[in-house]
Amino acid sequence: MSESPRRTPPLRWRLRHILPYYRQNLWAFVLGFLLLVATSATAALIPYLMKLATEALTHRGTNDTLQETVLILILVALLNAILRIRSRTHIFAIGRQVEYALRKAYHAKLLSLDAAFFNRSKTGDLVARGNTDVLAVRMFIGPGFLQVANTAMVYAVTLPVMIALNPTLTFLALLPFPIILGLTRLLTTRLYRLSRAVADRFGLFSGFVQEAVAGMAVIRAHAREEDWQRRFADEVQEIYSAQMRHTRLQSLFGPLVLLAGGAGIWIILLVGGQEVMTGHLTVGDFVAFSGYLAILVWPTVGFGWILTVLQRGLAALERISQVLDTEPFALLPGEQGHALPKVTLARGEIRVRGLHFAHNEPILHGIDLQLPAGSFVGLAGRIGCGKTTLLHCLARLYAVPEGTVWLDGQDLLSVPEEALRQTVALAQQESFLFSTTIRENMTLGSPNASEAEIWEAARMACFDEEICRFPDQLDTLVGERGITLSGGQRQRLSLARALLMDPAVLLLDDIFSSVDARTEARILDNIHALADSRRRTIILVCHRTAALHRAEAIYLLEKGRIAAQGTHAELMRNAPLYQSLHQQMIRHEALESLQ
Amino acid sequence: MMPPVLAETEETRDGNLFNMHPYRLLWRFFRYARPYRGWVATALTLLPVAALLQLWQPLLIQQAVDHHLLPGRAEGFGAILLLFLLLILGQFAVGYLQSAVNTLLGQRLVRDMRRELFAHLLRMDAAFFAHNASGRLTNRISNDTEAVSQMISAGMINLLGDLLLLLGIAVSMVLLSPRLSLVTLVALPIIVLGTLYITRRMRTIQRKGRLLQARMAGHLTEEVEGRETIRLFHSQAKNRATYDGMNRAYLETALQANFFEAFQFSFIDATSTVVIALLFWYGGFLYGDAGISIGVVVAFIDYIRRLFFPIREISGKFTTMQSAITALERIFALLDTAPGIVDHEPVQVLRPPVKGAIAFRQLHFRYGSEPVLQGIELHIAPGERIAVVGPTGAGKSSLIKLLNRTYEPQQGMIAIDGVDIRRLPLAQLRRLVGMVQQETFLFAGSVAENIHLGDPEITPERVRQAAEETGAMAFIASLPQGLATPLAERGVNLSAGQRQLLGITRVLAFQPRILVMDEATSSVDTLSERLIQEAVERLMAGRTSLIIAHRLSTILHADRIIVLSGGRIAEQGSHTSLLAHDGLYARLYALQFAEGREQAVDGVG
Questions:
Q1: Same domain flag for B29 and B88
Q2: Could you give the CA distance from residue A268 to residue B412 in angstroms, rounded to a whole number?
Q3: Same domain membership, residue B167 and residue B200
Q4: pLDDT per residue over B415-428, tens digit each?
Q5: CATH number of the domain that A132 lies in?
Q6: If you average pLDDT over each of A547-556, B352-361, B550-559, which comes out highest?
Q7: Where are the alpha helices (DSSP H) in A395-516?
Q8: Integer Cα distance of A380 and A358 in angstroms
Q9: B241-278: string of b/e by CB count within 10 Å (b at 16+)?
Q10: Which of A213, A437, B392, B533 is most buried, by CB atoms within 10 Å?
């Protein structure tokens, strides 16, 4: 990775989100370090014991010493194994714990962020940060620490022993190592970039295939198969080339490590061999040296590799930090630490005064509404007149200006989130269903609902009979985005979910668009019954004017303004737009029933 | 290295449960290697060379120790040093070649396989795509093939290499000293069984970990997509708990994996040291007899250190092979799905000029078990303009989709200029019949590319001319780079009306003899409505056309109106005669078209 010319921020700041974890785990790190020291010390004993064994073997007749050495060798090997397992699991566990905590923090942060943040982020990217990047940070903390500490320890313990045995030979045998370190570092950085290129290519390739499959009807309708086959061949060739560029370097890695070890042995043979022949060194020393060299090769290579891991970990941490540093926009003064009066909202009176709202372009222009608690009103108008936007404003999905909307006399902005959600429920035309059971989806907002309450909500949404026909009833899985349900079933499940909240304010946004006329009538009856109980304020948005007959008042929206208001009969008399909408609905229904 | 897990796939969910003749699958797969026989031969030749280069090194050290170091004899030592140097350099070169050749081979096979898969998809018909999710098909071509490439580059050939190396080490040890080999032999079952056990456990744990990772990613994706619902129902606490459950389970799996990883690492290290210790101990008894020398012991130490590597590798490679074979199974299953709509022999090419007369003869069509069209008999003269009307579900869109063989009728036939369309080459038929769909699918690419669709015959001049004729040029010119403006994914930066105009322009640029069109019902503003109307009229000029009408102007401009109901032609004739008849058409007209202008602007419920 090329360093940008701008000054990099201090490491302390870059690590701000994981430093607390380091502090928490300080003693764990210390213990891990001590375990590593012990591991390295026992590991360094092994080649020395082999030297003793070789020497004992050379001077025959000292079978007792040999047996003793062999016994010690076995014991040390076992001790070393236990220590190594302990130290590795201990240090990696710290990384895993931090990974867990970081992932948790990231997830909680995502849940707290709002539309403004998500609108400028891509889903895939956010998911990747929560997965791949968290993984990279874990590598930074666990293996990163282990490798750096391990390399330091191995050298600290092994090098003095080797120098004590023979300084010249040590120096010469280690000659290839700096080269290895440099090459590994160079290779891993380059390889990282090349493998990113392969991954990017692969992403483009998948996108290409996805698009081709989606547009297959057009490709075939215009007989463009050959052209696409050619373009596909080019795409595949691009991947191939990227992959081969990666392979040309990647293939160096393994052989290079072997070469380093081999070269060390060769140097020992070259220099040490002379010394053994002249009697300055024993064969045992020779065995010990090749043993030490074997101990040193991997930590050295690992060190070159880990520098890249650390770098990637820092980059990944940066990407996660960006999200962790984001704050929800000024939607909720209530969540900025202001002490809010703990009011229990229950009545559901809504007042709107001069509400203007723009989302890229102006949508609502000075809406005024006064809905007493327990009223049942309708919103009508053409597509795009602002009905849905108005409901979203009332449900505080969009940030309305202060002093425009009041709920039970309290400015909507100052209502605490939890209280608001318990008071206001919105059933959307296209509501999101999670890939879990019907029950889980229904109780999303009311996890403590009783079985009877669930069935009652399902009955009111006319979904109970169908649930009964599913093999697992309420525990039937609905698939991704509810794919195993029909459009009408999805819509009724969403309605049941909102009804189950038992809210003081019920906002129903075009909930009949995928439901057949008979079911619609039955649901409407249930809603009317609900309205008659006057325990709820209900706002019904509907394209079918027939559904609005019983509303106490209908507000007719036109281009973001309230063009007319009155009962169905009143509007039919004096609002041409409403009449036209009504005619259109009648025609449409007649057309539907025509066979 | 495993690829990052970002979503649940067949691999992470089901693991590898193949039950369909793995050998047959492999055998079929080998055919893909035929063009690369040379490379396969190279890869196979390199195997014994690499093994030899490795096996020779301990032997050289034995010779050096026994014949030169211990007796202190310098002559000949230089030759050994030189040979050793050559061996390690050779090992480096061969190792590099092996890795490069194996990857090259895997990538080339996969490149061919991907091309074959894609070519196969291009031949499949609409019914196939209706039943296969696009994500799954994309997975076949990208991920499954990648698994297969892994099998070549990391699995199959190296597996042979590892087996060869193991065998070589065993033979060398026995040749050096049969009795010392006994010690190793005693330890061998422990090593093999231990390694197998650990790798097996590791595999189960790793798979569980990957599945949990996939689940967490899936959960995160859903939460991001369904964030509005989460906010509305204030279910953050519940979501946090669910995610925490998975996160915690993943932590536990990870800790288990940690232990086994560390255990595997240390087990191999410790076992080899213990075996070496036993070697010294047993060597002490044998020293001097039976040709046991210090050099032999040193060489044995070296061999034992080399022994563990291939054992560990082999079991990992079986996993790679296993997942590749399941991927192969899925790939071949896709390749074996025959396309439903193909040219019928003998193929008959229509010679220009094509007049464009269409005849539907006793046409019956079922979709699944549901009858859609029943006994359609319809003759259309060249250049005639037909408007098709009828209630929802009458079979209107099936009628036009049969004409370009998107679907195939079960009975009866369609003829163009007297030739059965099944005898026409598909490519010719589809160039002959231009189809404007309700929804215009736009590819990521420039506006011009979306008009000519990469056809070299459609010159930039022709693209421009078509755009001007349909009036699409007016809005295209206002785009930042005109015709060269790139369109965002699926053309989201265009309005519905603009997309329809582009769709019409596209068909006009292809200059088909016959026009079929499913008029869009979606609402567009009044200006676009007029533009589209004019564009359609221009498109119909001089062509035989068959249009599912949703606009008043279309039925008024038609030469003949066909009224479909319940899959049959209920009425047909001119607008005035049908109105006079006062049947289904008259009712349809009153409901759908009489006040049509306003309705088309507003759209319906």
A1: yes
A2: 88
A3: no
A4: 888 888 888 888 88
A5: 1.20.1560.10
A6: B352-361
A7: 417-423, 438-442, 451-460, 464-469, 487-500
A8: 20
A9: ebbeebbebbbbbbbbbbbbbbbbbbbbbbbbbbbbbb
A10: A213
Residue B217 in domain: yes
Give the ipTM.
0.79
Q: Indicate if B165 and B220 belong to the same structural domain.
A: no
Range of the domain at A124: 9-166
Structural domain containing residue B241: 182-291
Q: Count CB neighbours of B322 within 10 A.
A: 19
**Do B153 and B37 fall within a single domain?**
yes
pLDDT of residue A342: 53
Which of A112, A142, A166 represents a domain boundary (last residue)?
A: A166
Q: What is the pTM of this model?
A: 0.75
* Spans of chain A, pLDDT less than 70: 1-9, 60-63, 328-346, 360, 479-480, 483-484, 545, 592-595
Q: Is residue A33 part of a domain?
A: yes
Statement to judge: residues A220 and A354 lie in one domain? no
Q: Which residue of B has its CA nearest to A82?
A: B266
Q: B15-61: per-residue pLDDT in tens?
A: 444 445 677 888 888 888 889 999 999 999 999 999 999 899 888 88
Residues of B in contact with A50 (CB under 8 A): 276, 280, 301
Tell me which of B113-122, B304-313, B573-582 is least confident.
B304-313
Asked if the model's pLDDT at residue B83 lies above 90, the reply is yes
Contact across the interface for A445 and B235, Cβ inside 8 Å = yes
Amino acid at residue number B282:
Y
Q: For residues B131 and B210, what is the distance between their CA atoms, to the nearest angstrom?
A: 28
Number of domains chain A contains: 3
A256 vs A262: CA distance, rounded Å: 10
- Whether cis (ω within 30° of 0) applies to the bond prior to B353 is yes
Has residue A317 been placed in a domain?
Answer: no
- In a mutational test of the B interface, the residue from A209, A332, A542 whose CB has the highest number of chain B CBs within 10 Å is A209
**Chain B residues lying within 8 Å of A104, measured CB to CB:** 240, 243-244, 247
pLDDT of residue A189: 80
Ramachandran region, residue B101 (left: φ > 0; alpha: ψ -120 to 50; beta: rest): alpha
Q: How confident is the model at residue B596 (pLDDT cuts 50, 70, 90)?
A: very low
Window A:167-206, CB contacts with B under 8 Å: 202, 205-206
CA dihedral (B141, B142, B146, B148) in degrees, to 10, reads -10
Assign B89 a pLDDT band (cuts: 50, 70, 90). very high
Q: Do A247 and B103 touch (CB under 8 A)?
A: yes
User: Are residues B377 and B244 both part of a single domain?
Assistant: no
On whether residue A201 sits in a domain, the answer given is yes
